[in-house]
Design a protein that fits this description.
Number of strands: 15
Order of helices and strands: EHHEEEEEHEHHHEHHEEHEEEEHE
Mean pLDDT: 93
Strand content: 25-35%
Low-confidence stretches: none
Structural class: alpha+beta
Largest sheet: 5 strands, mixed, barrel
Helix content: 25-40%
CATH class of the largest domain: Alpha Beta
CATH superfamily of the largest domain: Gcn5-related N-acetyltransferase (GNAT)
Number of domains: 2
Strand order of the largest sheet: 11-14-13-12-15
């Protein structure tokens, strides 16, 4: 059985091990102990804080295998994107090219550097150890972020975004980077990606062009990966789409990967989840995901239950995992 809970100080070594496994291009999970420690500390403070409006909090969740206590996955919610540090992307536009004299009319795509998502909330850092993948573990650690939001929506921005890792191979080669962005930075992809995740990003504003870039000027292999996800990102993309996220032609400036977004209150989990009174009983036949519907001490897991009106019947082990007792309210959403 797997449980999702806030990260704790004791989890740091396991968290760092996941960062080492994540590989090139995973900007939100860099193999940098000092940066990772800062994220853990911010999460500890954020879960403890009493908040009525979003600031710049960060919530780190971990996926724990309850039988062994081993941490095998992570995901995160980052509030206040672009507030103190800019959040740069390329927005793609189609422009009409017209010449009456030449009798030509056609559309061309251009990319412009933008910082559009100030104050949004970002979901990311979704990574599950290869040995623990399958059986819904990725879906659980991903959906737990929305169950967390549902517990107190006012802590989070009204727009939710997610960056998907673009096409980068195991050696750190990115066609988009090599054929476009590298020309403005004069450094390798891994270095630039690391700086993006660990600095105030001023170097991007200093070095990137401020004028439109015509997509047709790129090489074929660079154009082909625009808006495409990493080979290991297909599952994450599908989970986001099921939740209600969509692609609006905004891409990462380094690897060309897609950025997707959705209004917070239209997310499937926030719309379809409901509060139910939990009771102890036999294992049921309906697969659900549920949480204890709180921020401090947040817990979420999957279960097979029965429902009777507004009452949810679950095994005693589920109540123990969620740290609730009979008669408490839990938040429930169908397993998809």
């Amino acid at each position: 059985m797997y449980l999702v809970r806030p990260i704790e100080e004791k989890d740091f070594d396991a968290f760092q091990a996941l960062a080492e496994l994540s590989g090139p291009g995973f900007t939100s999970l860099p193999d940098d102990p000092a940066l990772l420690k800062g994220r853990v500390d911010l999460s500890l403070d954020s879960f403890k804080a009493t908040i009525s409006a979003p600031g710049e909090e960060g919530y780190l969740l971990v996926l724990e295998e309850m039988e062994t206590g081993q941490v095998v996955g992570t995901s995160a919610v980052k509030v206040g994107v672009g507030v103190s540090k800019p959040f740069f992307n390329f927005r793609m536009f189609s422009i009409a090219q017209v010449s009456v004299a030449a009798e030509r009319r056609f559309d061309m795509d251009v990319m412009i550097l933008v910082n559009e998502y100030n104050g949004s909330t970002e979901v990311g850092t979704l990574f599950v150890h290869p040995n623990a993948r399958g059986g819904g573990t990725g879906g659980l650690i991903a959906q737990a972020r929305y169950l967390l939001m549902a517990a107190q929506p006012e802590r989070f921005g009204r727009t939710i975004i997610a960056e998907l890792r673009g096409v980068v191979d195991d050696q750190g080669y990115s066609p988009f980077w090599e054929n476009l962005t590298s020309k403005f930075f004069h450094m390798d992809f891994t270095k630039a990606d690391f700086l993006s995740g660990t600095t105030d990003k001023q170097f991007i504003l200093d070095l990137m062009p401020k004028y439109p870039i015509y997509v047709d000027l790129l090489t074929d292999d660079a154009r082909e990966v625009i808006g495409k996800v990493h080979t290991e990102g297909g599952g994450a993309k599908l989970l986001l789409e099921r939740e209600g996220f969509s692609f609006d032609r905004i891409i990462d400036i380094f690897d060309g990967g897609p950025l997707v977004s959705a209004p917070r209150d239209s997310l499937r989990t926030l719309r379809q989840s409901r509060l139910m009174t939990i009771r102890v009983g036999a294992k049921g036949t309906q697969r659900v995901r549920l949480s204890n519907d709180c921020i401090k001490g947040f817990r979420a897991c999957g279960a097979e239950v029965e429902m009777d009106g507004d009452t949810l019947i679950a095994e005693a082990s589920i109540l123990e995992a969620l740290q609730v007792k009979e008669g408490d309210l839990v938040r429930v959403v169908d397993h998809t």
